[in-house]
Amino acid sequence: GIQVEQSPPDLILQEGANSTLRCNFSDSVNNLQWFHQNPWGQLINLFYIPSGTKQNGRLSATTVATERYSLLYISSSQTTDSGVYFCAAPATSGTYKYIFGTGTRLKVLA
Amino acid sequence: GAVVSQHPSRVICKSGTSVKIECRSLDFQATTMFWYRQFPKQSLMLMATSNEGSKATYEQGVEKDKFLINHASLTLSTLTVTSAHPEDSSFYICSARDTRGNEQFFGPGTRLTVL
Question: Quick one: A39 exposed, middle or buried, by C-beta within 10 A (0-12, 13-18, 19+)?
Answer without folding.
Answer: exposed
